[in-house]
Design a protein that fits this description.
The protein is an all-alpha fold and about 200 residues long. It is about 65% helix and about 0% strand.
Length: about 200
């Protein structure tokens, strides 16, 4: 349901009303805090993203970039998603990537033939750095998503979703979309473990 005062508030912010800016912040601050709390595990990052989103939306409203005032709720959520995506892009640049040597050195899934192993290695390298790190920590290092979340700065649920999407993407690339049953385990057995 659209916020009934969105038109008046958007127009007031456009002309520089501090009172209406305050009303806007009071309405959206708790919503943005909940939005980022559900997606980011680090409280400092949650707060930073909340503040950056509020500032970005206020600047956009002051510049008259909201075309339809009745769509303010969606506009704010869109800006929040963009802020989160940008934060993840920046964070992924600073994550240690899984190196080719690490992948080749790992003695997991010893039953794979060399050609299949090379294909899997190449597909892993094509994933985003964040997804590579998540899969590496969960599948190779044996961490649970709850333990991975603080290491990568995401919520446990976000880690689970990224793991699931990455595995689905790998499955599709390796086995095609016609295969409906998973053809490989979601955890790769270590060398000393029976397959």
């Amino acid at each position: 349901m659209a916020w009934i005062r969105s038109s008046a508030v958007a127009e007031g912010i456009l002309v520089g009303s501090p009172r209406l800016e305050q009303e806007f912040v009071e309405r959206f601050l708790p919503r943005l805090q909940a939005f980022f709390r559900a997606r980011v595990s680090n409280p400092d990052v949650q707060e930073e993203l909340t503040q950056e989103t509020l500032v970005a939306v206020l600047l956009a409203l002051r510049a008259g970039k909201l075309r339809d005032a009745s769509a303010m709720d969606g506009f704010v959520v869109g800006v929040a998603r963009n802020q989160l995506a940008e934060s993840l892009r920046v964070q992924a640049k600073h994550l240690p990537t899984v190196t080719r040597e690490e992948i080749e050195r790992t003695s997991c899934a010893p039953g794979l033939d060399p050609e299949t192993r090379l294909t899997v290695q190449n597909e892993l390298r094509d994933l985003a750095a964040m997804d590579q790190r998540i899969l590496w920590l969960i599948l190779i290092e044996g961490f649970r998503p709850a333990e991975v979340a603080p290491q990568v700065g995401l919520s446990e649920e976000a880690v689970r979703q990224r793991k699931s999407r990455s595995l689905s993407r790998l499955h599709k690339r390796l086995f095609g979309s016609s295969v409906t049953k998973p053809s490989f385990a979601t955890t790769i057995p270590q060398a000393d473990t029976a397959i």
